[in-house]
């Protein structure tokens, strides 16, 4: 048996087409153009490349984008003032502050300064709180992308055993919350494992859906996977560079061996990665609609 490959690239492509239509309709019927403001502080190449991809994705879909590259020496007070200006800018539906921020800036202060109505990254405590209690909100992009991958691949979550390895605030915890919710019928039974979990394999072997968000190359091996399970690999680990200097990536799952056991699996690259950016675009469109009272 070899697992069905869940192509995040293909699913993200379909969502992009849906968004293009939605954006064109918003413009035609209501004269609305969604707008995304990105802020990057400092010159970290990985962060620059993430922000560039987000700006490019906006351009491809017809979303107005405004990038603010700021020097690494920017004062926290100046960054907070910029966020405040963008909170009041009617062209801007969503604000994204690329993290990590330099050490002299308190990340939590900045994330809280973003208006929850423009919190398209879904990191504001108000957005997180709404998610936990099952209210409509902006879901953070990677977890929302994982939910879409499952939904659009016909993988049933209701009543399923979901095991997540990793408990970060940006992946593990929110994806657990989303998949356990009654509100949209996700209804999974969720277990979260982390570095203090005693016997991780004992948990992962029970999983109908196994989600790996650890940051350790090929951590999940074939003997840790129940035959026929769905395996979602969030890991994006750089394991080297090509002769041309391109990053060589591998996931948290030992893909070549696990695909012989699993029923369905996401590849790295081309799995969860492409979903994250498209969900940011979807949140920006949603923010624009909410700001204009369009449901
Ligand atoms: P974090 O480092 O914030 O969290 C990693 C989690 O994994 C922690 O909860 C940690 O446990 C747990 N963990 C680490 N090592 C082990 C171990 N040996 N055994 C059990 N648990 C372990 O990472 P992120 O959640 O931010 O990211 C995880 C991976 O996903 C990374 O490779 C990252 O690059 C990738 N990623 C990909 C995205 C995409 O769009 N494709 C988006 C975001 C992340 P503890 O809490 O106990 O320390």
TrEMBL record:
GO terms for molecular function: methenyltetrahydrofolate cyclohydrolase activity; methylenetetrahydrofolate dehydrogenase (NADP+) activity. Pathway: One-carbon metabolism; tetrahydrofolate interconversion. The keyword Iron does not apply. Its EC number is 1.5.1.5, 3.5.4.9. InterPro entries: Aminoacid_DH-like_N_sf, NAD(P)-bd_dom_sf, THF_DH/CycHdrlase, THF_DH/CycHdrlase_cat_dom, THF_DH/CycHdrlase_CS, THF_DH/CycHdrlase_NAD-bd_dom. Residues 140-290 form the Tetrahydrofolate dehydrogenase/cyclohydrolase NAD(P)-binding domain. Keywords: Amino-acid biosynthesis, Histidine biosynthesis, Hydrolase, Methionine biosynthesis, Multifunctional enzyme, NADP, One-carbon metabolism, Oxidoreductase, Purine biosynthesis. NADP(+) binds at residues 166-168, 236. Residues 6-121 form the Tetrahydrofolate dehydrogenase/cyclohydrolase catalytic domain. Homodimer. Belongs to the tetrahydrofolate dehydrogenase/cyclohydrolase family. GO terms for cellular component: cytosol. GO terms for biological process: L-histidine biosynthetic process; methionine biosynthetic process; purine nucleotide biosynthetic process; tetrahydrofolate interconversion. It catalyses: (6R)-5,10-methenyltetrahydrofolate + H2O = (6R)-10-formyltetrahydrofolate + H(+); (6R)-5,10-methylene-5,6,7,8-tetrahydrofolate + NADP(+) = (6R)-5,10-methenyltetrahydrofolate + NADPH. Catalyzes the oxidation of 5,10-methylenetetrahydrofolate to 5,10-methenyltetrahydrofolate and then the hydrolysis of 5,10-methenyltetrahydrofolate to 10-formyltetrahydrofolate. This is Bifunctional protein FolD.
